[in-house]
Structures are given as C-alpha cells and as structure tokens.
C-alpha cells in the first residue's frame, strides 16, 4: 500500500510573467526552455506532453500557477497547487545508499516545486534509523529502499523557502507513522516552529473562521501542518487533519468522473464542520503519461463535481502527480485553445453565484491571446475581489470561487 502524502500551496508570478513578455508565449513551439524565457522569470518550460510523453511537438508550457496578488481573503478562499508524494522524485537515491523502489510521482525537488508555485506538500513520515524519515513505504514501516530523506533536510528546505519568500504560505499534509514527539522535535530542529500556524487558532467548528491570508502573513504564521495521526495536537502541536479537512478518495478509485466521494478517514465532502477541502487527482500507480492526458480538462470536470459534492466549495488543495505535466496543444491552456478544450464558461457556470464578488473565471480564461492581456485582466480582477467588505461576509459566501489561485492552477494544468 504505497500511499499518499500530502500537501499544499500556491502562487507566484503574474507580475513576473509580464516582465518576461518578450519571450515566447505559452503554446508556441520551442527548442529549449531558454527560448520560452527562463523558468525562474517566466514560469515556462519547453516540453512535449502529448501522450505518450515526448512524442509531440515541444511547446512552451506553464509550470507555475498565477500569483493571486490579493491576500485579502480568508485562507480557505484560495486553492493551492499540491503535490502528491512530493518527495518521490524521478531518479532519487536514498542518502543511505539504496536505490529507491517506490515509483516516482514528481519530476523535481521540493525546493524546485516551491519555486514553481506549489504550496501544498504531501509527505509520509516514519520513525526510521533513530530519526524521522520521509519514506514512501508500505505496511506502516520504512525500509532502506523506500527511505527518501531524513525529514530534517526537507523541512530545512521548506524553512529556507519561507525565509526567502516572506509572503509564501505552505501547507504540509503528513501521512504520519511517527511516535508522539518525534515530529515536533524535528520541526523545531529545522527552525520551523516559529512559522507554524497555531493549532488553537484553527477553525474547529462551523462558526469558526480562518484569518485573512494577509494577516497570517503579517503574523508569520505561514506554515500549516496536518497529520493523519490523532493526538499530535497535544504532543507535537500538529493539527489532526480530519478535524479541519475533508478529502476525496485518492488513487484510481477516486478518479471516476461525475462523482466526488470522500476517502474513508474523512468526513463526507459536504461536512461543513471541516473548513478545508482537498481534492486528489492521480492514479494509484503514478503515471506521467496519464498526468499528461488528465491534468487538464478531466481535472476541471472533476473539480466541478467536487465543488457540488462539497456543499458548493472549491477544493482548497488540488493534489496531483507530475504537476508539471499537462497537454500542450490540447487542453493545457484554455486561453489559447478555444476548442476542443473544455469550455471555460462551462467551468465558470459551475462557479460563483451571480451575487458573488468573485470575478468570473471566464472573463479571464477566455481567449486572451497573450500573457500581457491576461495580466491586464488579472489586474482588473484584483480590484474586484478585495471589495468584499468584511472577512466575515467573505467567509459567509463560501460558494465564492477561490478564483485567483484556481485560475493559476488552470493555467498551469490546462
Ligand atoms: C485519462 O484517464 C482515464 C481514466 O483513468 C484513462 O482511461 C485515460 O487513458 C487517461 N488518459 C491518458 C492519456 O492516459
């Protein structure tokens, strides 16, 4: 039972994208990533993802979601790009010398993922070798051949990213096999304690609210950690995931279109006592070509089903394998491919009610022909969203699409 992990995410780059606008655009053919603009400035890379991978023409594809720009909404009004098994990176060798037998789920390191806008990380934690290790294992036990990294080194990477990105907010979902006290200790050793969003401030009842993203940033409460193991709130200061999060079925069982059921540990998707919604979208056996074909319109279709199943709430965390995989020339960028990609307006239609202050995604997704146009539209968008007055009124409109980041994700994946 190799299984899951967790985690979370968001954002960066619209402004930067704009700066890079002299480089090639999304969807243009390319020979190297530098012709798309460097990934650090443009968020683009040259890739071919028409299944099977590598067989289609290479085009510039986006690897980074769009920066929401506004941080004036409550935390649970954003959607964060989340990597499933964030650490199971192609070609990894365990530092203890064993070849890892677990199949990879991602293509690049956690630091690279964070640089590319991933803000949710799913990790499996085990007591191993007298320490806490991140493994992708089975039967609740870590082995040399499933042990990716000591948790400390990865947590330090996360800490370094938080230090150098003062407005980044990261969420970690731990599939937790450690004993009480292990994780709290290693988090402290990694210097993460000061960033932790305090468990006692997390909404525990329907009436409780998440703070505004900007207030979390101002208070430096920029790391949320959820564990699958009960009892860690008292011993390690880590939130028990199922108190706060509803989560969809994972693996291939969770892929059926037109429905969106919860995984066994989670309360039903429409349970409002949990204020965060996590949608899994990946196969049981990780497959890059599957991701190439399905991290696109099928993902949007699933989002819609989950929106409805989750009492009109968009997923806050969208967990995928091979987050950089999408299908250039097909559905990866709806702004440039009017058809046969899914209709953005169909997506918008499932989105916010007319009374919502949310910008309609369609106004942004519709056929903008260049990044600059999109940027301008995004710019207009930001002036709309913060107009929603008080945080409580925003909170009360849960059906509001967490538009900014979701759009970022769509740009990334579609
Ligand atoms: C997309 O997912 C479906 C359902 O899992 C699968 O049958 C199909 O082959 C996938 N597409 C690709 C290109 O892998």
Mean pLDDT: 74
Helix content: 25-40%
State the CATH architecture.
Alpha-Beta Barrel
> Can you count the helices?
15
Oligomeric form of this entry? Answer: single chain
Instruction: Give the low-confidence spans.
Output: 1-22, 329-414
* Distance separating the two termini: 30 Å
Radius of gyration: 20 Å
At CATH level 3, the topology is TIM Barrel
Content of β-strand: 5-15%
Order of helices and strands: HHEEEHEEEHEHHEHEHEEHHEHHHHH
What is the tally of beta strands? 12
- Which CATH class is shown? Alpha Beta
* Main beta-sheet annotation: 10 strands, mixed
Shape: globular
Please identify the structural class as seen in this structure: alpha/beta
Counted up, domains total: 1
CATH superfamily: Phosphatidylinositol (PI) phosphodiesterase
Protein name: PI-PLC X domain-containing protein
Signal peptide: 1-22
Biased composition (Low complexity): 344-353, 361-370, 380-394
Region (Disordered): 335-394
Polypeptide structure, described:
This protein has 414 residues and is of the alpha/beta class. The chain has one domain (14-413): Phosphatidylinositol (PI) phosphodiesterase (TIM Barrel, Alpha-Beta Barrel), CATH 3.20.20.190. Helices cover 28% and strands 14% of the residues. The chain contains 15 helices and twelve strands. The strands form two sheets. Strands 3, 4, 5, 6, 7, 8, 9, 10, 11 and 12 form a ten-stranded mixed beta sheet that branches. A two-stranded antiparallel ribbon has the order 1-2. α3 (110-115) links the parallel β3 and β4. The longest helix is centred in the middle third of the chain and has 14 residues, at 151-164. Residues 1-22 and 329-414 have low confidence and may be disordered. The structure holds 2-acetamido-2-deoxy-beta-D-glucopyranose. 2-acetamido-2-deoxy-beta-D-glucopyranose (NAG) is lined by residues 51, 255, 289-290, 293-294, 298.
């Amino acid at each position: 039972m190799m299984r899951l992990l967790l985690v979370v995410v968001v954002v960066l780059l619209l402004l930067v994208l704009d700066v890079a606008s002299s480089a090639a655009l999304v969807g243009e053919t390319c020979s190297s990533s530098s012709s798309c603009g460097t990934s650090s400035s443009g968020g683009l890379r040259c890739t071919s993802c028409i299944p099977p991978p590598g067989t289609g023409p290479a085009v510039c594809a986006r690897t980074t979601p769009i920066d929401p720009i506004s941080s004036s909404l409550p935390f649970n009004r954003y959607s964060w790009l989340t990597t499933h098994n964030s650490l199971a990176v192609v070609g990894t060798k365990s530092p203890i010398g064993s070849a890892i037998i677990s199949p990879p789920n991602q293509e690049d390191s956690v630091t690279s993922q964070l640089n590319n806008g991933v803000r949710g990380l799913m990790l499996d934690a085990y007591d191993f070798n007298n320490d806490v290790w991140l493994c992708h294992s089975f039967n609740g036990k870590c082995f040399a051949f499933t042990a990716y990294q000591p948790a400390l080194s990865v947590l330090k990477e996360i800490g370094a990213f938080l230090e150098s990105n003062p407005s980044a907010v990261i969420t970690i979902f731990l599939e937790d096999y450690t004993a009480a006290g292990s994780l709290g200790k290693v988090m402290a050793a990694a210097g993460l304690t000061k960033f932790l969003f305090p468990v006692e401030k997390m909404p525990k009842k329907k009436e409780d609210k998440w703070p505004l993203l900007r207030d979390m940033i101002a208070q430096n409460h920029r790391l949320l950690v959820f564990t699958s193991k009960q009892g860690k709130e008292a011993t390690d200061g880590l939130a028990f995931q199922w108190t706060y999060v509803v989560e969809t079925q994972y693996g291939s069982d969770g892929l059926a279109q037109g429905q969106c059921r919860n995984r066994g540990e989670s309360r039903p998707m429409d349970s409002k006592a949990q204020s965060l919604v996590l949608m899994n979208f990946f196969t049981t056996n990780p497959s890059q070509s599957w991701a190439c074909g399905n991290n696109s319109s099928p993902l949007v279709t699933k989002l819609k089903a989950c929106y409805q199943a989750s009492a009109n709430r968009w997923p806050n965390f969208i967990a995928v394998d091979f987050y950089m995989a999408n299908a250039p020339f097909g559905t990866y960028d709806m702004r440039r491919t009017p058809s046969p990609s899914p209709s953005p307006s169909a997506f918008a239609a499932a989105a916010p009610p007319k009374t919502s202050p949310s910008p309609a995604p369609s106004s942004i997704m519709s056929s903008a022909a260049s990044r600059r146009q999109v940027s301008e539209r995004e710019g207009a968008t930001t002036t709309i969203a913060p107009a929603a007055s008080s945080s409580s009124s925003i909170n009360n409109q849960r059906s509001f699409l967490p538009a900014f980041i979701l759009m970022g994700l769509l740009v990334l994946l579609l």
